[in-house]
Design brief:
The chain has helices at about 10-20, 30-40, 70-75, 85-90, 110-115, 150-190, 200-215, 230-240, 255-265, 280-285, 300-315, 340-345, 350-355, 370-390, 395-405, 410-425, 455-470, 475-485, 490-495; strands at about 45-55, 60-65, 75-80, 95, 120-130, 130-140, 220, 245-250, 265, 280, 290-295, 315, 325, 330-335, 360, 395, 430. It is an alpha/beta fold and about 500 residues long. The chain folds into three domains: about 10-175, 2-Layer Sandwich (Beta-Lactamase), CATH 3.30.450; about 200-365, Rossmann fold (3-Layer(aba) Sandwich); about 370-495, Helicase, Ruva Protein, domain 3. Strands 3-2-1-6-5-4 form a six-stranded antiparallel sheet, sandwiched between helices. A five-stranded parallel sheet has the order 8-11-14-7-15. The chain has a two-stranded antiparallel ribbon with strand order 9-10. It is elongated, with a radius of gyration of 30 Å. It starts with 7 loop residues before the first helix and ends in a 5-residue tail after the last helix. The relative contact order is 0.08.
Length: about 500
């Protein structure tokens, strides 16, 4: 009978990881990092990385990189077959190389550029159903030692655990996204949106809104365009005593004056040319519920007097009628204008302002609540990758820093639009900074893209984006590649393909 010796420390670590894989499905990245840390420790490696294959462009991207140069390494990617990791991915075979300089498959570019000398490499394929989806690589054994076949065997065991963890995380994420989407569809079916926010600033404002919801007084929501005033109005309605009634939205800036009056108050047959039938207005439809008057600062003066009467007497007449209609409606108004200045300059009635301003709620801009950006970004990413059927796993650290450091003049609405464009444009597993159209690009003329196919529009954008970055970096390709977070060789190829001329 053959006696087999098992390294107890490695075996115990394996048991711990296996137990965690079967209990923790939520944070796949954290679990993968723990597996790779354990593999690195037990093989006595100086650094390590997990690279995953992007099937759209057949390149290897660093998912996790540990070691003193880990963050710098994550800026790079490899083609299948490029370097030792690329060879392992293409051939779906493990590799142990204790003298990389003598191996023709070794590519020293990344090692040289990040300043981390590489002497030995242990690399094994990560497989799902025998298909290679990535590579786990250990760099340099400590104290100048060499990797052994036993190290290789243990690394293959650990990479199998990593593959299971990755699959579990993807399945969990898919189920969670489907549940989230189902909840949103149920809400949207009733005409409501999902409220996203975790910053202390926004939660404090929400508490104020909920307290206001308990009364029947009019509420005035103030804040810049795109901050989410309509979502606050929905939350107030849902927490109010009239939540069982209708929630009716009206944009006071969307219609000309004569149509807006009919929209709000209705009209009788023959009241004006084209009035071939009697029509119920929004106030009548909202009876027993809430009416949300967005852009109230654009309401014409003569309609302001009718609105004031509704607030005071709960009654109005349809256009062309003398019959008084009595209603019970909660009014929530919103504006992005300086409404007090509008009052001072006689463009808005002071008595109406005081009636609406009983319970004012100011909603801060997105730049004052940075804590909400990652949560909102993840929400919009989940929404748009579901709509586009793209498999995008998240944001790179650089991309998230870009979102956190941008001022968002268009607030949440601009963030949503930016992420939608990024999802459409992106061809990688993670959204990178070059997928976002911010700053001057948020003001790009739409006419430039009209009439073009999606492919042509993306090509045009790439050309403009790269040209602008090249100019900003003095046309130095190495600095530009670093700013764009891409390899210099890839930048050179793009310059040729897009016919970018200095």
């Amino acid at each position: 009978m053959i006696k087999v010796e098992i390294d107890q420390q490695k075996f115990q670590t394996l048991l711990e990881i296996n137990a965690e894989i079967n209990s923790n499905y939520e944070d796949g990245t954290e679990l993968l990092t723990k597996i790779i840390e354990s593999a690195t420790l037990l093989t006595e490696g100086e650094a390590s990385s997990l690279m995953l294959i992007n099937l759209e462009n057949n390149r290897l991207y660093f998912e996790i990189a540990l070691g003193t140069k880990g963050e710098e390494v994550k800026k790079y990617s490899l083609e299948l077959g490029e370097g030792i990791a690329g060879w392992v991915a293409r051939n779906n075979m493990p590799l142990l190389v204790n003298d990389v300089e003598s191996d023709s498959r070794f590519n020293a570019d990344i090692s040289r550029q990040v300043g981390f000398p590489t002497h030995s490499i242990l690399a094994v394929p990560m497989r799902v159903k025998d298909k290679c989806i990535g590579v786990l690589e250990i760099i340099n054994k400590k104290d100048g030692k060499i990797f052994t076949d036993e190290d290789l065997q243990w690394l293959q065991i650990f990479v199998t655990q990593a593959a299971i963890a990755l699959q579990n995380a993807k399945i969990y994420q898919k189920v969670r996204d489907e549940v989230s989407l189902l909840k949103e569809q149920i809400l949207e079916k009733d005409g409501y949106h999902t409220f996203i926010g975790q910053s202390s600033t926004i939660l404090d404002k929400l508490k104020i809104a909920y307290r206001a919801a308990e009364s029947t007084s009019s509420i005035l929501l103030l804040g810049e365009s795109g901050v989410g005033k309509e979502l606050f109005a929905e939350q107030i309605h849902l927490k109010s005593k009239c939540s069982g009634g209708p929630f009716i939205r009206v944009n006071c800036a969307a219609l000309p004056e004569h149509l807006l009056e009919s929209e709000l108050f209705g009209h009788v047959k023959g009241a004006f040319t084209g009035a071939v039938n009697e029509r119920r207005g929004k106030f009548e439809i909202a009876d027993g519920g809430t009416i949300f008057l967005d852009e109230i600062g654009d309401l014409p003066l003569n309609l302001q007097s009718k609105l004031l009467r509704i607030i005071q007497h709960k009654s109005f007449e349809k256009v062309g009628s003398n019959e008084t209609i009595t209603i019970n409606v909660r009014i929530i108004a919103a504006t992005n204008k300086d409404i007090e200045r509008e009052v001072q300059e006689k463009r808005f009635r002071a008595d109406l302002f005081y009636r609406l301003n009983v319970l004012p709620v100011y909603i801060p801009p997105l730049r004052e609540r940075n804590e909400d950006i990652p949560l909102l970004a993840d929400y919009f990413l989940s929404k748009f990758k579901s709509e586009t059927k793209k498999q995008i796993n998240g944001f790179t650290k650089e991309a998230m820093n870009l979102l956190l450091n941008y001022s968002w003049p268009g607030n949440v609405r601009e963030l949503e639009n930016a992420i939608e464009r990024a999802v459409v444009i992106s061809q990688t597993d993670y959204l990178t900074p070059d997928a976002f159209i911010l700053n001057s690009f948020s003001q790009t003329h739409e006419d430039d893209y009209m009439g073009k196919t999606l492919k042509d529009a993306i090509t045009l954008f790439k050309k403009k984006f790269i040209t602008k970055t090249l100019k900003a970096q003095g046309w130095k390709q190495t600095k530009t590649a670093k700013a764009l977070n891409i390899q210099r060789t890839y930048l050179s190829r793009l310059i040729k393909e897009l016919n970018i001329i200095r």
